[in-house]
Amino acid sequence: MTTTTANPKRAAVRPRGFTLVEVLIAATISVFVLAGVLAANFQILRGGVRLANYVEIDSQVRRALEFLSRDLKAATHVTWNGASDLTLTLPAGGTATTQVTYAWTAASNTFFRVAGASSATLVGRLELVRGIPARPDGTAGLTFARFDRDGAAATTDAATKSIQVNMTAGRGAPGAGPGSNTMVSATFTLRSKPQP
């Protein structure tokens, strides 16, 4: 019969677990790494929201300027209703004409187009650009300026030969930081309007 005796050196070497201090240090390092990853993801998300807002604004502004450009080039008469409101008389075939009004309203912060001579009409209103707030000084967020054929400020509807539109459209999302803003200024010549 053989007997084996345990080696005293082997008995002293036992597998060991982590100490409480090691676990606390590892947990602290993990918290810092996780916080960095979450902060980076949050910044990427904010950037994506800003980009989506900018693309939406850009699309709306381009569409609005296309509508306005087409109607201003065809307009035979302009009626100045105010700095943020004008009515255009357009040919409707033969000798008939129709009117459309372009305006901005502070109530909804929108630039819109509506058939007829009044911006108060709600039926058939086509919102072109949403998110045009009033300026910090309280003035309109979208303004029109009118010029005569020499480029000087026009004072009458008959003298008006070109229209300039100025707006600052913006979007923001809750928790996404400052919104995206687009400042636009465009000038259009009334090609079909007869000279005074």
Walk me through the structure.
- The chain is an alpha+beta fold and 196 residues long.
- It is 31% helix and 30% strand.
- The strands form two sheets. Strands 1-2-3-4-5 form a five-stranded antiparallel β-sheet, covered by helices on one side. The protein has a three-stranded antiparallel β-sheet with strand order 6-7-8, with helices on one face.
- The mean pLDDT is 85.
Spatially, the strands of the biggest sheet line up as 1-2-3-4-5
Give the C-alpha Rg: 33 Å
Contiguous uncertain segments of 5+ residues: none
> In whole angstroms, how far apart are the ends?
129 Å
State the major sheet.
Answer: 5 strands, antiparallel
Helix and strand succession? HHEEEEEEEE
Give the number of helices: 2
SS content category: alpha+beta
Mean pLDDT: 85
* Principal-axis shape: rod-shaped
Q: Bin the strand percentage.
A: 25-35%
Instruction: Say how many strands there are.
Output: 8
What distinguishing features does this structure have?
alpha+beta, 5-stranded antiparallel sheet, 3-stranded antiparallel sheet, rod-shaped, 196 residues, 31% helix
